[in-house]
Write a structure and sequence with these properties.
The protein is α/β, with parallel strands linked by helices. 35% of the residues lie in helices and 23% in strands. The chain has a 16-stranded mixed beta sheet. Strands 5-8-10-12 form a four-stranded parallel beta sheet.
Length: 512
């Protein structure tokens, strides 16, 4: 056996001498083994000098938490020591405590975010995903089943989402936000604490605040935080069960206010000279607005009035604030109440003289289509001489005021032709005869260039095409049939290519 192996190795050596390829391959094998050994020695030498990789996991997680998502992921390619550490470093921070510690923990969280540069203004991001990648989260548990999910996003956007056990009859509470610069600086002069000053400066960096599901249990912590947000430009309040009254006195700071689905809200008082955008969805509370000039107003009161009995004074100051709006959402019953309860005094304009001279886009919400509802719509349209886009939404679940008396037809007559109107889009639940009735009435007040689009609740889309008179009728019968032929039209269902173009016509408040 050994003799055969010796003969085999002798034959291989003779072949390598005669074959240069085999000779070079064997030489490269020994060279590669030597280079691998040298590389391993260098890696061991570098690892001996790598003091950062020797740090504990908690320290490495803290270092990674100070980086953006892209840079944190790149640390996983440094060595096997760093693999998976970046995931733990960017996880949501979790803490436990009591309700009374919510305000303090939010202050710590904002201070930490300020060091990361998340509260710096003017940062630009290519996409929403890139914006989310640079956010940080805090999960703070309080009580047995409640917790707060706080998310800080770049440019000073703070989201506070409270989760707690829902009660059938929530306890009422109030929210108050007042900007008081002078009182704050006087308080800081007495309490000379550098950490408190640093934490309050982090609060001042917040520009946009989202409050979701605030309850009576957490309202005190939220009120304490609101008292420190002196530079807040946007306030969004959603689904706060038990919120009874809201009072805002922001001076010249707040420019955007959104209130959605706070069904127990009965009173809203707003004093904000710079407020230009106000969106509201829910039951109609009592409004007290001072010195407001809204350019973008969404008054979605399709749920009806929140106070019983309803009085026009609940809405008077708000309707005066939307007189010069450019974008507006309004329910039919809200405008119709002007003719029923508004007192005709010398200091208040009558409904017949109340106009919207700057309105460009209107979303009109109604619960049905009939002669009376169309009359109310036309009564509003004659007050909008420069309207460009009209969106009619037929929602059967919308509130409708009971008709107590019949009004004169002169109140709802619309003889003005809307020459600036470019698009009319009608969508919602309608019968075929209602669609024809509304279309024939619209043709009386729009120009020939106006596009009329009809979208059913089954997602079918038609466009209205007018039919012209035949040349044979024009010499004799043209003067007699001219008015009647104005309403000669047909519905043409659009194809897939044109469907995308027509679906692009959306009101600014359509997707809210």
């Amino acid at each position: 056996m050994g003799k055969k192996l010796r003969n085999k190795t002798k034959k291989q050596q003779e072949e390598e001498k005669n074959d240069p390829v085999l000779r070079d391959r064997r030489r490269n094998k020994f060279v590669s083994q030597a280079s691998n050994a040298e590389r391993d020695d260098k890696i061991e030498e570098k690892s001996a000098n790598d003091f950062i990789s020797r740090l504990p996991d908690d320290v490495l997680k803290h270092i990674i938490s100070l980086l953006s998502l892209r840079d944190a992921v790149r640390t996983g390619f440094l060595s096997t020591r760093w693999r998976g550490v970046w995931k733990a470093g960017l996880e949501t921070i979790e803490k436990d405590g009591t309700v009374g510690e919510i305000f303090r923990e939010i202050g710590h969280f904002l201070d930490y975010s300020q060091k990361l540069g998340l509260l710096t203004r003017g940062q630009e991001f290519s996409s929403i995903l890139s914006l989310i990648e640079h956010s940080r989260r805090l999960r703070f548990h309080f009580g047995h089943s409640g917790f707060l999910l706080a998310t800080i996003m770049p440019n000073g956007n703070l989201h506070l989402d409270f989760y707690s056990k829902k009660h059938e009859s929530p306890i009422d509470f109030d929210l108050l936000w007042t900007s008081e610069y002078y009182f704050r600086w006087a308080w800081l002069a007495v309490h000379d604490d550098p950490y408190i000053s640093l934490m309050l400066s982090a609060f001042e960096s917040i520009r946009c605040l989202h409050l979701i599901a605030v309850t009576n249990l957490t309202s005190q912590a939220v009120s304490s935080m609101l008292s420190e947000l002196h530079c807040l430009e946007s306030l969004i309040i959603k689904e706060c069960h038990g919120l009874y009254s809201l009072r805002i006195d922001s001076g010249f700071v707040l420019s955007k206010l959104i209130i959605f689905n706070c069904l127990q809200l009965k009173s809203v008082e707003i004093k904000a000279y710079k407020l230009s955008k106000f969106w509201f969805r829910g039951l109609l509370p009592t409004f007290t607005c001072r010195n407001l000039g809204l350019a973008d107003a969404m008054l979605d009161f399709r749920g009806g009035p929140g106070n019983d009995p309803f009085e026009y004074k609940h809405l008077d100051s708000l309707l005066s604030a939307v007189g010069f709006s450019r974008i507006l959402t309004l329910c039919r019953w809200t405008f119709e109440s002007m003719f029923r309860q508004r007192p005709r005094t010398a200091c208040r304009p009558r409904p017949s003289t109340f106009e919207f001279p700057q309105l460009k886009e209107l979303q009109w919400i109604d619960n049905e289509v009939n002669q009376h509802s169309i009359d109310v719509l036309f009564s509003f349209l004659k007050r909008c001489p420069f309207l460009q886009k009209l969106y009619i939404n037929i929602d059967p679940t919308s509130y409708s005021m009971p008709r107590t008396r019949k009004y004169s037809n002169q109140v709802f007559v619309c003889k003005r032709i809307l020459y600036f109107l470019e698009v009319v889009k009608v969508e919602g639940v309608m019968k075929k005869r209602d669609k024809k009735l509304l279309t024939s009435r619209l043709l009386d007040v729009v120009s020939k260039e106006t596009k009329i689009i009809v979208k059913s609740h089954e997602n079918r889309i038609w466009k209205v095409e007018r039919e012209s008179l035949s040349p044979l009728w024009q010499p004799i019968w043209y003067p007699l049939l001219k008015e009647r032929m104005k309403k000669h039209y047909k519905f043409v269902e659009v194809n897939e290519e044109e469907r995308e173009k027509l679906c692009s016509y959306k009101h600014a408040h359509a997707d809210l």
